[in-house]
Design goal:
alpha/beta; Four Helix Bundle (Hemerythrin (Met), subunit A); Rossmann fold; 2 domains; four-stranded mixed beta sheet; globular; binds 5-S-methyl-1-O-phosphono-5-thio-D-ribulose
Length: 339
């Protein structure tokens, strides 16, 4: 099984996703500052995986701290939580996981500092285990929406690599594939940093899922020619009304799907739901380094002097979403999410 985040002997292990598909390199982390940097630089990415890594980042910080009292540990961990929270603004799973770790810490204040360290590692492991279970449940629920012989288009990577394992959108595809329903997965390349071609295609090859890679601009003509039956993507944050932030380009696919009368599904665990935001208008959208757009890999594809706009995510209004699949079931409009 693909496990992008693991905890072994008090150390955090991350599969370096920036090196895929050329190299399967696992890195070890013993400082929370390095975990934060790994999240910022996409060594670990995908909303649920970011949450799991951040939870272990707090466990790492607890081991790193030399505090001998609860107050000393609290001060060190508040600093780590602040640093981890400052890495990526859009995926709400990050803040959800950090809030959960802080609550665990505060509830353990009467324990010894060593016992608190163990308690935090166990809580991070619970975040991981629960995400894995949620993905399996989403796979079961989502597969009921997939017709036999389906040709499914997906965007970015919402697979095992983006989660504790198995995946959300790709988890639905995995489950439908296991039931023999998937004829083909159209894998969007996903510019600018190619999570589709580098990561989703890699997972499909590993699992023997029939797929075909396309440049992002191909989706419209595939739909027009009747070569897509449904679209399924993941999510980075879902507002109370169902508006959904996901990888840049997702909104365009939802509009295209509507035009071609195709179902457009979102699969995400309830840790991706942010009921505090009434609509998608309030979701913070990360802007990333212009260099990601000026080059493909190490090759410059634009003048260094060209100004760039590089939003990492867009928001799909809920009216374009046929259903949202969570571990709790399949939800349809009108959406009114609570955690
Ligand atoms: O910038 P990334 O690679 O972290 O963006 C990932 C996505 O947009 C995914 O679709 C989303 O996080 C869902 S992952 C199950």
């Amino acid at each position: 099984m693909i496990a992008p985040v693991r905890w072994a002997g008090g150390r955090l292990l991350l599969l370096d996703q920036t090196r895929l598909p050329s190299e399967e390199l696992t890195r070890e982390y013993a400082r929370w500052e390095d975990v934060a940097e790994a999240i910022r630089t996409l060594v670990v990415r995908g909303a649920p995986a970011i949450g799991v890594a951040a939870a272990f980042g707090v466990a790492v910080a607890a081991r790193q701290s030399t505090a001998t009292t609860f107050d000393g540990l609290l001060a060190d961990l508040e600093m780590a939580i602040k640093g981890l929270a400052a890495t990526r603004p859009t995926a709400v799973n990050l803040f959800w996981a950090l809030d959960r770790m802080r609550a665990t810490l505060l509830a353990a204040r009467t324990l010894s500092v060593d016992a608190i360290r163990s308690r935090l590692a166990a809580e991070a492991q619970a975040v991981l285990d629960e995400d894995l279970a949620a993905n399996r449940a989403m796979g079961d629920h989502g597969a009921t929406l997939v017709p036999s012989g389906a040709r499914i288009l997906t965007h970015c990577n919402a697979g095992a690599l983006a989660t504790a394992g198995y995946g959300t959108a790709l988890g639905v595809i995995r489950s439908a594939h296991a039931q023999g329903k998937v004829a083909l997965v159209w894998v969007d390349e996903t510019r600018p940093v190619m999570q589709g071609s580098r990561l989703t295609a890699w997972e499909c090859v590993r699992d023997g899922i029939p797929h075909r890679l396309v440049a992002d601009v191909v989706a419209a003509s595939l739909m027009a020619r009747g070569q897509v039956d449904l679209v399924v993507t993941g999510a980075d944050r879902i507002a109370a009304n169902g508006d959904t932030a996901n990888k840049i380009g997702t909104y365009a696919l939802a509009v295209l799907a509507r035009h071609h009368a195709l179902p457009f599904y979102v699969a995400a665990p309830s840790s991706t739901i942010d009921p505090s935001l009434p609509s998608g208008a309030e979701i913070p959208i990360e802007e990333r380094d212009p260099a990601e757009v000026r080059r493909v890999g190490a090759t410059m594809t634009a003048p260094e002097a060209s100004p760039v706009f590089n939003p990492a995510f867009d928001v799909t209004p809920s009216e374009f979403i046929s259903a949202i699949i969570t571990e709790r079931g399949v939800f349809r409009a009108p959406y009114s999410f609570r955690r």
